[in-house]
Specification:
Length: 257
């Protein structure tokens, strides 16, 4: 009977984590470039009471065994890197990646982080930065007096200076992709860092850049609400299993000769 209590308790804990993850997805439904997460579960060890294929007392082989599972555990939260909806803004430095790939930014400690959030700005020195002031990598500088800023599909940034006819080139935004983007480390602020699981950044097979658009979150509210209802019902049925086990233990404890 104690097995049922602990197994059902593990189910309740697992669904609590599931609801926590769903809540985070819903909280970021309007976060630019946000990628939803799903929780992966697996069953835990089994108590084997009789092994399949064992011999019976008559020398016959038992076709199936007897084993009792001991619950569930979460093993991973996986980011889903499907394309989010695109929203037109008309801003020259709002960029969206059509296809695979990430923008590269330089963190204050000099390491490189990666993002799908293309809402860039210019700082006081004309450098193209994220909303938190992190520089694009490689760095792009557009003078304050520049007009007609244009970003090509390959990431080439050009502009004009008033009074001059020549088009100036500020540099090229380089996109990178990973063999396993789900293996990237999320660090907040719409940023990811490379890990051993993600593989190395490479420039093969990246998408193209579109100017004046932003990629929004890929969270689907209706889907997350259905997931929340499912998790809530799973939590409820596990609590019922604990209640049933407790009632059976109570009846056994109250037996009289």
């Amino acid at each position: 009977m104690m097995r049922a209590l602990w197994s059902a308790a593990s189910g309740m804990q697992a669904q609590q984590l599931n609801v926590d993850n769903i809540s985070n997805n819903l909280a970021n439904v309007n976060t630019g470039g946000f990628k939803k997460s799903v929780v992966n579960f697996q069953d835990v060890i089994y108590q084997v009471l009789k092994s399949p294929g064992a011999s019976s007392a008559e020398g016959l082989q038992i076709p199936t065994g007897l084993s009792i599972g001991l619950g569930v555990r979460p093993v991973a939260t996986q980011k889903i890197f499907t394309q989010g909806n695109m929203q037109q803004t008309g801003n020259a430095l709002d960029l969206v990646i059509e296809g695979e790939g990430f923008f590269q930014v330089t963190l204050p400690d000099g390491t490189i982080a990666y993002t799908r959030d293309g809402s860039f700005k210019r700082d006081s020195e004309g450098n193209v930065v994220t909303s938190d002031g992190y520089l694009l990598e490689p760095a792009i500088n557009v003078p304050a007096e520049a007009t007609d800023i244009n970003v090509g599909g390959d990431g080439t940034v050009t502009y004009k200076i008033p009074g001059e006819t020549a088009i100036q080139e500020a540099g090229r935004i380089e996109l990178v992709r990973f063999a396993n983007p789900a293996g990237l480390n999320p660090i907040g602020k719409n940023l990811f860092t490379q890990s051993d699981a993600s593989g190395d950044a490479n420039t093969e097979g990246v998408g193209v850049i579109s100017q004046g658009w932003l990629e929004m979150s890929n969270v689907q509210v209706v889907e997350e609400m259905v997931n929340m209802i499912t998790a809530q019902r799973a939590y409820e049925v596990n609590s019922k299993a604990i209640q049933a086990s407790d009632e059976m233990l109570s009846q056994a404890a109250n037996l009289r000769r």
